Amino acid sequence: MEIIEAVLPALPYVQIVLAVLLTASILLQQRGSSLGGAFGGDNFSSAFHQRRGAELFLFKFSIGMSILFALATFLNVLT
Q1: How many angstroms separate the Cα of 5 from the Cα of each of 8, 19, 68?
Q2: What is the Cα–Cα distance from 60 to 70, expressed in whole angstroms?
Q3: Residue 32 has what pLDDT?
């Protein structure tokens, strides 16, 4: 419990930083479909797309940030 009590004063700032990083990582990801997909057009080339490089990093980074944000929020609710 000593560790939790030491983290409590900084927890709101940690949540703000995690929220900003999570939002940025989600917004930086590219869409898989083109404009034609928004109007019902078929885009078969995006159906079998494999993430590579920076796109894979952003995908895994956004998953990590969402897990950390959920844990920080859960910790804040418990206290």
Answers
A1: 5, 22, 18
A2: 15
A3: 56
